[in-house]
Amino acid sequence: MAWLSVGHLPFRADLVIFDKDGTLIDFEYAWGQQTIAGVERLVAAVDGSDILRWDLYRSLGYDPRFRRTAGTGPLATASTAQLYTIAATVLYQHGLGWNEAEAQVKNSFEAVMATTPLSEFVRPVADVKSLVNELRKAKVRIAIVTSDDRSITMEMMTLLGIEDKLDFLACGDDEIPLKPAPDAVLSACAQLGVDPARVVVVGDTVTDMVMAERAGVGCRAAVLTGAGSRDSLAAHADVVLGSIAEIHVT
User: Which domains does the chain have, with CATH numbers?
Assistant: First the structure.
């Protein structure tokens, strides 16, 4: 247990649970580029129109004109499998049979996501490794709860240099209810023997904050490095930070 300064808020913590995309890594830099590449390849594969293109972007919750993700949209909150289902649904609504729609998503959209080297997209929002080392030195446990798949998440953790420093990891393809359900937070607390009242949850979306609230954690810290806006996050957070760089051991 250690005293942290979470922005202006002092908090005595046993465990810090981080979201991944938008919290530890630059969300728009990573997922924006992959979404554009995936949608454009998918539209070309089915000889689609601009109407299909914009229906895909709108349904996924991404605006390529401004390179901006909707804070409460699927791209910011859903699992990878759910994103593929959304894309296939749009194709089905545009006249493809369901089996063909799923096959096209797998061969085009999913292929872009799976084959693009993550090293080209992973850009930390701050000095993630130093913060994790600082917390571990103070005997504060570290967890990651993300909607992304486990294989991609572990590769990203390696790129950040923290793959061997995590006490708990919950991912979108694990057998656990997704955010905003509190199950991942409560599972981390149960596995590590931590009272939720001594937990900080750090995330960039309202979904992260609602998960934290439902789990009864002691500190909900929102960051502005992802999809959420200050106004939307402030209503659900105890503190709003510019980034994780405002978290320190005191």
Answer: 2-26+123-249 (3.40.50.1000), 28-119 (no CATH)
